[in-house]
Design brief:
Layout: H1 7-28, H2 33-55, H3 60-117, H4 122-155, H5 157-172, H6 174-177
Helix pairs in contact: 2-3, 2-5, 3-5
Length: 178
Amino acid sequence: MSWWMEKRTYRYFFILVMFGLVTYFLYLIRGLFLPFALAIVLVYLLNPLVDRMETRGTPRVAAILILYLGVIIIVTSLLMYGVPRMVNQLESLVETIPAYTDQLQDIIKGIEQSFANSAMPPGVQQVINERISWAEARLLEMVRRTADLLLALIGNLFHFILAPVLAFYIMKDLEHFK
């Protein structure tokens, strides 16, 4: 009997096809992993409090909603206090950036003049110039990554909104899962 006619070969082929289909399915729903992961973290943090409130006689749904209200109040208070301070800091940074840029340009001009007046070998000057260029590139890359991170956070805002909704339903029906 040929190897492709054996039952074991069909079984391996079936397992391989199923693995490929599951991998493709997970690829298709990859956008839902973040909200579910955040929901699981919320459930992990809030469920003990919900259980305590439930043992004291509060209905489970009411306990979840009361905790959500408390979390919303805390987060809103932090945002109301933190966002204006952060905006003020950013405004002062924007105002002082030109002064810092001028100081940095003066320092760089001084270094360039020192290089021009020094008797350093050209190879050493080239190495120093390469290191300065490398540091500038790293600084620009860091700024670019920070901007990308902020845009990604804004892009994932839907996930941060969906996570508490998922966590509510998971906590509500958690006793049915056990």
